[in-house]
Amino acid sequence: MRSAPPVERGAPDGVGGPERGRPRVRRGLPRPRGGAAHVDAPRPCRGGGGWTPWIYLAPALVVLGGLLVHPVYQLGLISFFAYTQAQVSGGEPATFQGFGNYAELFADGEFRRVLLTTVVFAAACVVCTLAVGCALAVLLTRVRAVPRLALMLAALGAWATPAVTGSTVWLLLFDPDFGPVNRILGLGDHSWTYGRYSAFLLVLLEVVWCSFPFVMVTVYAGIRSVPAEILEAAALDGASPWRIWRSVLAPMLRPILVVVTIQSVIWDFKVFTQIYVMTGGGGIAGQNLVLNVYAYQKAFASSQYGLGSAIGVVMLVILLAVTLVYLRLLRGQGEEL
To answer: What is the Cα 187 distance to its own chain's centre?
Structure first.
């Protein structure tokens, strides 16, 4: 005769073993009333926290509403009126023009030229800033404590320098008569701000100099949060430093890179101080104009506040569009931001 199968430990009395898919009853635990075994299933996480997050965000939203929403509303409102010095002084009433200011802007060949120049210049500044900041962030992870501290202090000093001061210092460094750069390079009395492209190059160097510390510090903090075992494994597999950055670090740091890229786009697209100080208000015959300086000239030099406000609205729309498209592309790739 075949012997009865052994009773499995923890199975109910009289049952040879638990059925497949049936929960087992742990020994030593009281059974619930009614004789049926009960297993607590993990509770699903509920999305959202009701009104609690908005309560914490309310003070910041109130401040932003006062400092941002109302000025943007006034900017958009003025852009629909013929608003000049006569209307500011109260001598004449403001005349509603609808989209007349915008039509005048886009019909102006100079505005289209300045818009294209601003886009190209901002893109070059963003690419150079990200390249320098990310390269120095990787360098910080490979040097000892003393050089790392010196580089961090130097970078933070450049970051903390006011734009007017930094622009003036760079002008002195590249001065055709007394600047040390021309003497070191043997350029004689070459004027960097006379030519259109050399002036833009000089401004680009100053913009990158005062912007890369933010990228460097942020990316360095992100690299330090990556487990060292991952980087060691990639190095043991024979990956070069560039391959480690491109295939390991960059994908893991993508949310951080999104933040610094968007911030750099906003900063570099609305550059004003560096261009105004280093090129004397836009260069010879306006050859170095960007949108912010162009709007300043229209609004305050020509007293065409309606046109200046329209330029500001165009800049705001472009920045919002670039940011939303960039975030949408990243979400399409499955990134959580």
So the answer is: 37
Higher pLDDT, 205 or 329: 205
Q: Is 199:193 a contact under the CB 8 Å cutoff?
A: yes
Residues 96 and 106: their CA atoms lie apart, in Å, by 19
Per-residue three-class SS string for 105-168? HHCCHHHHHHHHHHHHHHHHHHHHHHHHHHHHHHHHCCCCHHHHHHHHHHHHHHHHCCHHHHHH
Backbone angles phi and psi of 96, in degrees to 5:
-75, 130
Distance CA(233)–CA(235), nearest Å, equals: 5
Assess contact for 293 and 272: CB atoms under 8 A: yes
Query: What sign does the dihedral 47-49-50-55 (CA atoms) show?
Result: negative
CA distances from 325 to 85, 205, 255, 328 (A): 38, 28, 15, 5
Q: What is the arithmetic mean of pLDDT over 306-327?
A: 90
Question: Are 296 and 311 in contact, with CB atoms under 8 Å apart?
Answer: no
Q: How far apart are CA 200 and CA 207, in angstroms?
A: 10
Unique residue bearing structure tokens 């109130």: 62
- Contact partners, residue 102, CB within 8 Å, separation at least 6: 79, 310, 313, 314
Structure tokens at 95: 């005349």
| 56: CB partners within 8 A, 6+ apart | none
Residue 150 pLDDT grade (very low, low, confident, very high; cuts 50, 70, 90): very high
Per-residue pLDDT reduced to its tens digit, 107-134: 999 999 999 999 999 999 999 999 999 9
pLDDT tens, position by position, 55-81: 998 998 888 888 888 889 999 999 999
From the list 133, 166, 136, the residue with the least C-alpha distance to 264 is 133
Q: Which two tokens stand for residue 337?
A: 């931001």
9 DSSP 8-state letter: T
Residue 328, pLDDT above cutoff 90: no
Helix (H, G, I), strand (E, B) or coil at 19: coil
Number of C-beta neighbours around residue 106 at 10 A: 14
